[in-house]
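Here is the promised in-class demo. Please do not try to memorize the tokens; focus on the logic of going from shape to residues.
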């Protein structure tokens, strides 16, 4: 279970990141993914209300990528197909940000770092709340990417899903370990994330 502590965040210094909540990926995750859609909708609504940045990460591929031509994976998430679209329940508003990636990694050859600078999020001061699929691959790499860049990383366990339960347990175990827990926290979206009006220290529990 997550630690019973409330994290208060200045809305100007925290962003919501929604990873790979796309039609094709969610279909592969099966019915289990349905349990995280409503909590993500709720936290998305709260972030929109306070005006915090919203970043949607979208996986896309081209048929000529080494993943398929060299390593033999089946074609998936092909750019321009309906399967790569964000699910309607979480469709971005026109002013919200979309980061497109071609691997599990939200930072590798993407605009993520440039975007963080543009919206004014600073390492060792500001936070990201990471949600989406899959907990043991794309969400995992997103969390690690923010972690090693010295952001505070909040992972609401009711807003992430793994296609394999053992993979999800591994990822959460890693995030709770001493290697990560100094700036990564596992919590619940509704009961443990609060927004400050302004000022004070970010993400002080």
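The designed amino acids, position by position:
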């Amino acid at each position: 279970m997550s630690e019973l502590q409330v994290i208060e965040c200045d809305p100007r210094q925290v962003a919501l990141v929604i990873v790979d909540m796309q039609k094709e990926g969610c279909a592969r995750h099966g019915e289990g993914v349905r349990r995280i859609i409503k909590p993500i909708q709720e936290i998305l609504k709260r972030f929109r209300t306070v005006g915090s940045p919203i970043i949607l990460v979208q996986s896309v591929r081209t048929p000529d990528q080494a993943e398929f031509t060299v390593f033999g994976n089946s074609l998936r998430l092909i750019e321009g197909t309906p399967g790569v679209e964000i699910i309607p329940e979480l469709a971005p508003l026109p002013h919200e940000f979309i980061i497109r990636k071609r691997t599990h990694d939200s930072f590798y050859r993407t605009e993520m770092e440039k975007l963080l600078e543009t919206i004014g999020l600073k390492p060792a001061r500001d936070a990201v709340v990471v949600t989406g699929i899959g907990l043991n691959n794309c969400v995992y790499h997103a969390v690690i990417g923010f972690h090693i860049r010295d952001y505070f990383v909040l992972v609401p366990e009711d807003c992430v899903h793994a296609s394999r339960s053992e993979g999800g347990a591994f990822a959460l175990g890693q995030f709770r370990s001493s290697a990560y827990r100094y700036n990564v926290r596992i919590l619940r979206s509704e009961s443990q994330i609060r927004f400050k009006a302004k000022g004070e220290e970010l993400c002080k529990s």
